[in-house]
Each structure stands twice: as C-alpha cells, then as structure tokens.
Design brief:
The chain is α+β, with helices and mostly antiparallel strands and 479 residues long. It contains 24 helices and 15 strands. It is an enzyme of class 2 (transferase).
Amino acid sequence: MDIELNDQEKIIIDKIADAAQELHLESYLVGGFVRDKLLDRPTKDADVVCVGDGIALAKAVAARFLPVPKVNIFKNFGTAQIKTTLRTPQGKDITFEIEFVGARKESYQRHSRKPQVQPGTLEDDQKRRDFTINALAISLNKNNFGKLIDPFGGLKHLEDKTIITPLDPEQTFSDDPLRMMRAIRFATQLNFTIASETLLAITDQAERIKIISQERITDELNKIILAPKPSVGFDLLYKTGLLALIFPKMAALAGAEYIDGHGHKDNFYHTLQVLDNVAQKSNDLWLRWAAILHDIGKPATKKFEEGHGWTFHGHEVVGGKMVPKIFNELKLPLNEKMRFVKKLVMLHLRPISLTKENITDSAIRRLLFDAGDDFEALMTLCEADITSKNKQKVQRYLDNFKLVRRRCKEVEEKDHIRNWQPPIDGVEIMQLFNLPPSKPVGILKDSLKDAILDGAVANTREAALEYLYQKAREIGVYQ
C-alpha cells in the first residue's frame, strides 16, 4: 500500500476489504484520509467509496466489529457511517468515523448547491471531488489492493503544495460555491498555494457564495480561524472578494486614509497580525474571535481632528456593542462564548491605560473585577495587540504589561477582587429599605460596589451597611 498505516488502521481496512469482497463490490479509500496519510497528518475519519450499495457495505463492515457499532444511515444521501475506537501511537483512544457511499456522478442546478445524483463509476466519483488532492483513491480490491489511483495528478500537487480543481474551476465553484471557502481553508491549514487559474475562478464566482447557508460558511470560517496562521485565509478571503460578501464588517476595516500627511494604520492587516499573534499563544477559538473583533468598532468611530490626526475614541465600547449582532448574523452561539468575546473587546484598552506611572490600586481592582476569570485571556489579547515594526517599542509595551501583571497579582493577593461580589446584594437592599425592583436599588447597589473598589469603604458587611444607610438617606429612600 502506498500509505503508511498503523496496526489498528490495518485491521479496520482489512475488515472493509473483506466485507466488500464478500459482497462483490469494488471499494476504495478516498479523499481526506488518503491525502492526510500521504502528508503524514493525523486522521480521525475515512471515506470509503464502493461501486454499488454503500449502505449494504457499511452494515457488512459493522458486523465484523465486536461490539457491533451502530450504523447511521442517511438515505437521502445514500450514505452510511459507523464509529469505532482507535488508539493513537501516543496511546490515546479516539473515535474513528468511517463513511460509506456508493460511487456517483452529480449534476447541479444553478440556484442550488444540492446536486442531482445517479450511480456512477470510481472515475465519475473522482471527477466530482473538489480538489485533485482530495480525488486520490486507494484500491481495497483483491486484484490491485493498495494501488494509488490518481487521475488528476493529485500526488504531484501534494508535493508541489498546490490547490487545484480536477475539472474546470469556474464550473467546480459555480456547482458548489462552498468549495471556494474550502480551497482557502485547505491553503491555510496545509500552507499550500491556490493555483492562479483556480484563484481567479474564486474571484469570478465569489457572488455565488450567497446561495450557501450561513451555518456552512461559518463552519469553514471557524476552521480557517483555528489554522496555525489564520491570516493566510483572511487575506485570501479579502483579495478574492469573498470577505466583503460573508463578513462585510471585517472587510470595512481595510485601507488607510491620509489627510494633510496624517494617516492611520490599515486596521484590517493590523487585525490579522493580532490574530496570528494570539494563534501562537492559544488554540481557543473564542479568544481568536476576540482578536478578530477587537477593533471592529473603528470604522464607526473614525474621525480626523485638526492638529492631532486620526482618532477612534470609544471604539472598544462601540465594538463591544456590535459583538452580539455579529454573532447573530454569523450564526455563532449567543451564549457565554459571545459574552466572553464581548467582554474582551470592551476591555482590551484597559490594561494599556494601566501601564502609566502612579496607577492607583483602585484602577487595578476595577480591572480585576471586570475581567474576572478572563484576566489571562485579556492580557494575551493585549500583548498580541502590539504590532509595531519597531522592536524597541514592542519590548517597551510588553515590559509595561509585565508590570501590570505584577501589580494585579499584588492587589489580588491582598484584596481578592477577582470574581468578588459586594457583601450585600440587590435582594437584601430591597429588603433593608422596603423597595420594589427599581432605579434606587440599582443606584445603591452600584454605588456600594464602586465605593469598595475605590477603597473608600472597607470590604466588610458592617462597613457596607453603614455606607448603604448613608447613601439611602442621600437619595431620599430612608429617613
């Protein structure tokens, strides 16, 4: 066999080959499994194409495992899937998915990416694949077991690190426009180059992306974001015109404007640098989203001030307020993940303001209180936000952030403010002063919190009560 398999993978492949032979079905390993094995990348799934009934083959293969795994059947697509446990060379158990499908050929209607399907040969099946590197097949048949079948030069394209379509790229992308994003995703993940003709076709067909569901687009976007160097993908999305269609608010960051010799940096490429910087430190998808959105409020706040230049006052607040709407538009989760991104966008300038001398403990306490458990993530974002080409300037900022971390550690050890809550909450305030839920309750609650964070009131129940009675008299809710 032209690919290296570990012992467990060999057992699985032998079971598939035996079952196919028993059913007199031609069968082949195809697509991502073959590609990743040739690239020596880890694999968690395999696709098997047979000339005939893929669902019948899946059932026959499942029967060869103990315990017998469930066969998940997708009748509309003529596919079936089984899952088994595979132990990696590192000794870790992973779920290994095997998908079975009958070889087919496809034709498309212009208004839809859902093809009309009919049975076909292996050659037909390879022709419908998105890229040559995904059209590679390995025979599981007795007469030529292990033979690599490569009708489009996919093996050479793997060696050349090139993304290219098996057939005319204009037709390939018009048929299924999601393939445009897949091309960019593979180029980003694998550090490959998209062939010039293929890249030109993406630019020409970009508008076709509008027929793709937002969920599918966002899934590809997230895979690009999780790549080792996500800027590669975003640069390609921008230059092909796809980004302006799928994420116009991010595309709006691009460009620099000059008035009277005063210019500002290109916030799009600055954002990509911040994203790459975060990617070097963290695989957290949502921290990477915070990097993408940290300056998203700049276009709305951009202003030229005579004698001063360009300003973006309040862009962190405007950007934070934009986060829920962006998440909703992109069909990202509107839960604690969104709230985490929003918090980091709104707070990302705060640590910079604390790098100045004579910063009070009060300011440090407020940052710790507002950041809570996300303090480390916030500092990672802030450090990534230093993108100057001046190495001395970068080092100066990073040294200042070390000082902020040290001050925060000292204050936290002393005051335990992170995730702190005032000793008296809103419910007890209502009981103390016989108040319904109302504006005065909010005033009392917030003023107590601020007084303790500012160090004006001790963080004890007794001191909090004394303060609240005094404040309640001031606002006229207690005599």
